[in-house]
């Protein structure tokens, strides 16, 4: 009775554990590429940092704009001191008696209200405002660029995880095939049909396949950790992704006869880094204007209203207005040096812009060539996989019938593993090639997400 109860308890425990693990696997929802991109764009520290820079740059524009308008300052003070200083004025003539005049009162109050308005700055304020606007525009474009780079990286990482999972499956399948071969060879050895050497050779192959499986499992864990890092998740958080078994649809522009020319033109109109380089040239031009403005006169108007403790030498209220003209006379070459420095930086920005334009053209051409190459390799991998599977099936039948050799089987097994590996890599290389092409032409993040949302 006791033995039956223990056995039943073990069975029940096994069922409970199985249900628990089954529930655990179901509770980890699979993530789509669209969801991965949304999470990364929302949480990635680099993208959030670039967004903060955009806010800071826009505040810089507000600050520069405020310099055009009046500035009103209010100050107040209160002072007590001893002794009070005063003197007596004797009577002067008829009807004017003696009076006490205070020079330094015991307590002194002062209230100042000052209005300052720049009237002419030689273009300084306009240049500062232009610099702020160009800086803000560059910050926005750099933020867009960081988003596009993140989208590309996440797409690469997503497909790398799926590729690593598929390669683990390939390695597991290879291990099962070699284990089956080891079983067959063992039976044949026991029957005296093969020599001990063939057993040793298949065991050596089994050890090699196990090593490849360990490497594939390690690569999978590394890929998952990299994926979690991009999404700003815990590096060890479980990763369950929706799989991809079919090649992607090629972008419509790649099917055109003038694909390369059209893609380059599109990239030049969309690429955030190219547009940021253009803004950098405009920013450098504003810096030249600002440097030149330092050599021009400045005119400002200041008005002051003061209320204070009345003394013998100061009224209770005072008003003043002042027009200030400041004309640079001699600066030991400071302005000239600043202008030449700004002009050199402008030339540098123009050269960098030219370099970015060439780089964009190169990246687009490379992306197109890589996509075409990936397409051809995928087609070749499908054909090679069909042939390798058939070759392995025939080699096993021949070996079991005694008509083939173990070497034929091992060669066929290696060829099949290689064909499956190449097929997996070609499939995900094709997906990465599309991601690289869309990055090269600067496809907006909103359009990428919209396309993926339609595939959900």
Q: What can you tell me about this protein's structure?
A:
This protein has 456 residues and is α+β, with helices and mostly antiparallel strands. Helix content is 68%, strand content 12%. It contains ten helices and six strands; from the N terminus they run αααββββααααββααα. A hairpin with an 8-residue loop joins strand 5 and strand 6. Helix 7 runs antiparallel to helix 8.
Question: Summary?
Answer:
The protein is of the alpha+beta class and 456 residues long.
Highlighted features:
alpha+beta, 10 helices
What is the terminal separation in angstroms?
Answer: 56 Å
Instruction: Describe the main β-sheet briefly.
Output: 4 strands, antiparallel
Number of E-state strands: 6
Q: Count the helices. How many?
A: 10
Might you state the CATH topology name?
Outer membrane efflux proteins (OEP)
* CATH H-level superfamily: Outer membrane efflux proteins (OEP)
Low-pLDDT stretches are: 1-26
What does the overall shape look like? Answer: elongated
Number of domains: 1
Radius of gyration: 40 Å
CATH architecture: Up-down Bundle
